[in-house]
Amino acid sequence: MNRIFQRCFKAVAVVAFLMLVSPQLSFGQDGEALFKANCSSCHKPDVKYVGPPLKGAREREPEKGWVYKWVHNATAMAMTDPYASKLREEAGGVVMTSFPDLTNAQIDAILNWADSFQPAGAAKPGAGGATVAPQSNHTVLYGMLTLVLAIIAFVLLQVNSNLKKLADEHDNIPGKQPVPFYRNKAYLLVLLIGLFLLAGYFLVDGAMGLGRQQGYQPVQPIYYSHFVHAGVNQISCLYCHGDAQNSRHANIPSVNTCMNCHMAVKEYTGEPLKRADGSIVDANAEIQKLYNYAGWNPDTKTYDRPGKPIQWVKIHNLPSHVYFNHSQHVKVGQVACQTCHGEIQKMNEVKQFAPLSMGWCINCHRTTNVQFNDDKGNGNQFYSLYEKFHEDIKEHKYDSVTVEKIGGTECGKCHY
Ligand code: HEC
Ligand code: HEC
Ligand code: HEC
Ligand code: HEC
Ligand code: HEC
Ligand code: HEC
After folding, report:
1. Alpha-carbon torsion 334, 339, 341, 342, what sign?
2. Which residues contact 49 (CB under 8 A, 6 or more apart)?
3. Crossing angle of helices 255-262/283-294, nearest 10°?
4. Cα(171)–Cα(362) distance, rounded to whole angstroms?
5. Ligand 1 centre and the CA of 73: distance in Å?
6. Which of 201, 279, 286, 301 has the most CB within a 10 Å radius?
7. Rounded to the nearest whole angstrom, what is the distance from the C-alpha of residue 52 to the centroid of ligand 1?
8. In the prediction, which pLDDT does 362 show?
9. Which of 263, 252, 268 is nearest to 311 (CA)?
10. Which ligand is nearest to the CA of 249?
11. What angle do CA 218, 227, 317 make, to 5 degrees?
């Protein structure tokens, strides 16, 4: 009996060990390192960059093995192969560098890595911006491990009960009526509790995380640096986001606003700029991208082709059941942009600074004073309604009024 158990546990240990090491075993080549060394200046795994995203490249290839030929000699392929020339057209005529020295296994390793790439902390589009936690890979691994261990435990229990039955028969003890496992109350209870916990966990986690994406920093269609514009060149936030002062939403400037300056500013002469992943930006190529969107020809100084709007990725997203108004805060409340957005003028790529959670809004409303209009007519002209507060302040009953006191924590103020 003891021996059987020992063997079973050894088997479990071996299975668990194999599960832990197998992901490392199956990739002899380090796809990520190869990618960073050879391809990352032009490709991203999941989004378009100079070249197309590498994720799923092998599903798109016209015939099996096409990618090997392509990576080994892109120049020749772009001349002769119809799919390759189509790609080159889509990339605006840029031809990829050839890598004759990469082996097929190395190319596969790169593409395997790209296929399994998950952006850390990025948002699932369309899912209310719910975030994929960076640690979810581990969660899945542990989940699978738990499942496997549970199945093994179950099998062992079955083996145990069968052995017991055999032993009982051997000793001529009359056995009880056997209960099939799916009618066994103990198993059913464990299963039920398990399901309950799992459902509860996902419900709470999903609801809490709905729309939350602090730290979100997507790659934008043009590498546009706030540090260069609002920091080094001191352009006012309101030059580009003027609507923040008088309407609900701060606008994102149109291509025309950019062209006001960039008809003249053709080159970037400042310090070299780096992306979040450390790669160097070709800033003049980024300005060229702007010209492509605008349809501007810097040589002839004319708009010689139709322009198209830049599809900036929206970073800050409140759920649709929340009402937030910029002018209420920027103009009336005189809250600085940086209080809510962080030091944008020091960021190259914008990153969401605040959690945009309900607690974040409410805490500020509890602690921030309303800016009543002073004698010079500055501050809040809207709240003549609140004459009472003015009178009380004049009579020195109190010297400030928080947003909470004017109703800033009432549900209806922020929720439809
Ligand atoms: C100098 C920039 C550059 C580098 C470096 C580069 N690529 Fe490309 N790649 C491109 C461009 C641009 C295209 C689009 C086709 C064209 O215009 O030639 C492309 C296309 C591809 C495609 C076809 C994608 C599809 O949608 O079918 C694959 C696969 C590919 N590259 C793999 C790689 C791999 C692997 C590396 C690294 C070993 C690499 N590339 C390095 C620029 C580059
Ligand atoms: C020259 C124009 C320009 C200036 C000046 C400028 N911005 Fe922007 N801003 C943009 C563009 C274009 C985007 C969209 C691309 C991006 O997110 O980087 C943007 C995006 C943003 C976003 C993120 C919007 C979203 O998607 O949620 C915030 C917040 C922001 N700007 C705040 C500021 C603040 C604060 C200042 C002043 C310190 C400022 N901006 C100055 C052009 C400008
Ligand atoms: C009290 C906090 C707060 C202040 C102050 C603030 N913002 Fe925002 N900003 C937000 C929130 C919250 C959002 C998300 C709004 C949404 O999803 O509807 C946002 C979104 C944005 C966006 C994206 C477009 C939009 O309206 O959804 C831009 C651009 C922006 N802010 C720029 C600015 C600038 C420029 C200033 C200063 C003039 C500023 N913000 C001041 C909280 C603030
Ligand atoms: C008020 C003038 C002004 C406006 C408006 C403006 N820029 Fe710029 N831009 C500049 C200046 C100045 C530089 C830096 C030139 C230098 O340092 O040599 C620059 C640099 C750049 C660069 C290279 C550095 C970087 O950030 O990557 C890009 C790309 C760029 N601008 C894109 C844009 C886009 C897109 C818009 C519209 C959303 C825009 N600019 C609006 C003045 C402006
Ligand atoms: C940094 C501080 C700060 C943060 C963060 C903040 N607010 Fe406010 N909020 C204010 C101030 C100050 C006022 C008062 C403006 C005034 O004088 O009427 C205000 C006013 C309001 C009002 C009008 C209240 C009334 O009684 O008329 C609403 C609605 C509101 N905020 C919604 C939000 C929402 C939604 C969020 C979060 C997404 C938020 N605020 C985050 C500072 C903040
Ligand atoms: C100052 C603005 C503000 C006030 C006042 C406010 N809320 Fe919220 N509420 C928010 C914001 C912002 C969110 C979105 C938070 C998120 O996405 O995590 C939210 C989310 C929620 C949610 C969705 C659950 C969640 O965490 O996403 C519920 C339910 C809710 N609020 C109920 C209330 C109730 C009830 C009151 C009154 C006691 C209230 N709220 C008052 C700003 C406010």
Report:
1. positive
2. 42, 43, 219
3. 120
4. 72
5. 11
6. 286
7. 7
8. 92
9. 252
10. 3
11. 35
216 CA distance to ligand 5 middle (Å): 23
Among the bound ligands, name the one nearest to the CA of residue 212: 6
> Would the pTM of this model clear 0.70, i.e. be above it?
no
Q: What is the CA radius of gyration of the chain?
A: 31
d(CA 202, CA 353): 26
Single-letter residue type at 165? K
Question: Using a 6 Å CB cutoff, which residues line ligand 2?
Answer: 220, 224, 226, 229-230, 235, 237, 239-241, 252-253, 312, 314-316, 337, 341, 344-345, 350
Angle between helices 2-26 and 136-170 (to 10 degrees): 160
C-beta 362 within 6 A of ligand 6: yes
CA distance 290 to 265: 11
The reply to whether ligand 4 has any atom less than 6 angstroms from the CB of 291 is no
Q: Answer yes or no: is the C-beta of 316 below 6 A from any ligand 6 atom.
A: no
pLDDT at 162: 85
58 Cβ contact partners less than 8 Å away, ≥ 6 residues apart: 67, 111, 115
Query: Is the shortest distance between the CB of 314 and ligand 1 below 6 Å?
Result: no
Token pair for residue 111?
């593409």
CA of 95 to the centre of ligand 4 (A): 27
Ligand lying nearest the CA atom of residue 41 = 1
Cite the DSSP H helix spans in 326-377: 326-327, 337-341, 358-367
**Each residue of 380-413: pLDDT tens digit?**
555 555 666 677 777 776 667 788 878 888 899 9
